[in-house]
Amino acid sequence: MNTLYYSPGACSLSVHIMLEWVGKPYSAVQVSYADAEYQKLNPAGQVPALDAGDGNVLTQCSAILAYLAHTHPAAALAGNETPLGQAQLGRWSAFFTGDVHPAFFPVFMPQRYTTADDETSLANVRAAGTSLVRKRLDLLDAHLLNRTYIVGNSRTYVDAYSVPMIRWASLMLPGGLASWPGVKAHHERMLADVGVKQAMRDEGLI
User: Fold this and answer.
1) Looking at residues 22-29, what average pLDDT do you find?
2) Which residue from 16, 78, 98, 168 could staple onto 199, CB 3.0 to 4.6 Å apart?
3) What is the pLDDT of residues 61-108, one digit of tens each?
4) Closest to 5 measured CA to CA, from 125, 33, 167, 18
5) How far is CA 120 from the centre of its chain?
6) What is the spatial distance between Cα 204 and Cα 16, in angstroms, rounded to a whole number?
7) Rounded to 5 degrees, what are φ and ψ at 140?
8) Does the structure show a pLDDT above 90 at 55?
9) Full set of structural domains in the chain with CATH
10) Which segments within the chain are labelled E, that is strand?
11) pLDDT in tens, 97-148
12) Cα 202 to the chain's mean position, in Å?
């Protein structure tokens, strides 16, 4: 049985959603990044981690999502299995991993990006991060207009991946997602999903 190690509302929420979509029994354990026992399991001290129950502990969100999709083909979350179809999934998974997620780091942890500790300097770093987030949402919005899902005609693990990060944007940006109607419509569609609701409920987010 799969065991997910997560922090509420973090990117690990996407794996929590995938486990709901897969529809197989699993357990979910809330952890602290600083927990010494968790760091033995995942020395990086980050979430998510997935104990696959066969001696393998997987880390890195995009890798775990793809693993769950491909090991549960009946759930149909791996998209079109052609090389082009998989490249499109990989493209958008990499977009969330390499473009969207890092754009939030200066917003959440501005002290990482400056040696100054005064509030003005930290606010400037946050503003730069917010600008990056907006640019990433512009790209995603242009792609999502007139689309129901990010890749193809049915949900995939990339749709699950989007949920925590777009949720962050909806909570932190002035006006929420109003400037990105395609992103907003997609996110609302995800939030209405039974599996998404259950994962968020389990994490105390709703």
Assistant:
1) 97
2) 16
3) 999 999 999 999 999 999 999 999 999 999 999 999 999 999 999 999
4) 33
5) 30
6) 13
7) -65, -40
8) no
9) 2-77+197-202 (3.40.30.10), 83-193 (1.20.1050.10)
10) 2-6, 26-30, 49-51, 57-59
11) 999 999 999 999 999 999 999 999 999 999 999 999 999 999 999 999 999 9
12) 16
| Residues with Cβ within 8 Å of residue 88, at least 6 apart in sequence | 79, 80, 151, 152
Query: How many of the other CB atoms lie within 10 Å of CB of 67?
Result: 19
Residue 34 CB neighbour total at 10 angstroms? 8
Report if pTM > 0.90: yes
Phi and psi, residue 55, nearest 5°: 95, -5
Q: Say if CB 170 and CB 177 are below 8 A apart.
A: yes
Note the residue count of the chain: 206
Question: What is the C-alpha to C-alpha distance for residues 19 and 195, in angstroms, rounded to an integer?
Answer: 9
- C-alpha closest to that of 166 among 147, 141, 194: 141
- The answer to whether 107 touches 126, Cβ cutoff 8 Å, is yes
Q: Tell me the pLDDT tens digit for each residue of 147-170.
A: 999 999 999 999 999 999 999 999
Phi and psi angles of residue 176, each rounded to the nearest 5 degrees, phi first: 60, -130
Contact 181, 189 (CB under 8 A): no
Task: Find the mean pLDDT for residues 179-184.
Answer: 98
Provide the pLDDT for residue 67: 97
Q: What single DSSP character describes residue 110?
A: G
- What is the residue whose two structure tokens read 């994962």? 199
What SS3 state is found at 29?
A: strand
